[in-house]
Write a structure and sequence with these properties.
Elements lengths: L2 E4 L2 E8 L5 E5 L10 H8 L4 E5 L16 H14 L5 E6 L1 H12 L4 E7 L8 H17 L2 H11 L5 H13 L2 H11 L6 H6 L4 E6 L7 H10 L3 E6 L6 H4 L1 H14 L1
Parallel strand pairs: 3-4, 3-5, 5-6, 6-7, 7-8
Antiparallel strand pairs: 1-2, 2-4
Helix pairs in contact: 2-3, 4-7, 5-6
Length: 261
């Protein structure tokens, strides 16, 4: 296990491959860095240095109960990369991870050479969404992760992919309820990143599964229309986790992005 002590917590991370081209990947909720295994293996073999960390509250990182807002996650990423002496990098994230990427665009745009926004959305949380996220946080603390994981497994991945579904379900079962709840409460306070999208000037890949119910293609189109330097890729036959469901198609799109960044 590789860890770093930053911002008063311990962060578990993978730092794989060598070279000056650095790809940093941010996982979604309620997963950990192992959701990026297909990308870590693929791109580290192709001359890229790939860094993937467990966000606070997940995986091998410190669990901090309460509320964790997206700017706290972004600050942790910056601190870890400072610790690793990484100044500039391509940054990618899926779902909540994509929202953290947008927060990083606000906080340290000068460090970013390219972006991957996967199965995510930019608009602020609604009043109903805030109620639902806080109610789910309460439920996870009361019941644990298993009931939730079983309920949403087939929304995370398409039904024709049972192997991917089991992998994703296990990630969700393993997530610490306190960390997942803290992230949900933080996302309930999510700001509007629409103006942030308009400020992006680096090559950006907006990618989404064709069957994603959480962040449908319309959400990806909304971001693509507002990022002048973006391309849009729809991964056919995938739901919310195209990097796991259809890694070949996902990696091919990222390769094209990395060639520009």
């Amino acid at each position: 296990m590789t860890t770093a002590n930053v911002n008063g917590i311990t962060i578990g991370y993978d730092d794989t491959g060598t070279g000056d081209d650095v790809l940093v990947l941010v996982h979604g909720h309620p997963f950990d860095r192992t959701m990026w295994r297909p990308q870590i293996e693929h791109f580290s073999r192709r001359g890229h240095r790939v860094i993937a960390a467990d966000l606070r509250g997940y995986g091998e990182s410190t669990v901090v109960p309460g509320i964790t807002t997206l700017d706290v996650f972004a600050n942790d990423i910056a601190a870890l990369l400072d610790h690793l002496d990484v100044d500039r990098f391509v940054l990618g994230g899926l779902s909540m991870g994509g929202q953290i990427v947008m927060q990083c665009v606000q906080d340290f745009p000068e460090r970013l050479t390219g972006l991957i926004l996967a199965d995510t959305f930019a608009r602020p949380e609604t009043a109903e969404g805030r109620r639902n996220r806080n109610a789910m946080a309460d439920r996870l603390l009361d019941e644990g992760m298993s009931g939730y994981a079983n309920e949403v497994k087939w929304k995370m991945v398409a039904r024709h992919n049972p192997e991917a579904a089991e992998f994703v379900a296990q990630l969700m079962h393993n997530a610490p309820p306190e960390g997942a709840a803290a992230a949900l409460r933080g996302r309930a306070e999510r700001p509007d990143y629409t103006e942030t999208l308009k400020s992006i000037t680096v090559p950006t890949l907006v990618i989404v599964g064709s069957d994603d119910e959480y962040t449908p293609v319309e959400d990806a189109e909304y971001m693509h229309e507002r990022i002048a330097t973006s391309t849009l890729e729809v991964v056919e036959g995938a739901a919310h986790m195209p990097n796991v469901e259809r890694p070949e198609a996902f990696n091919r799109a990222v390769e094209e992005l990395l060639a520009q960044a």
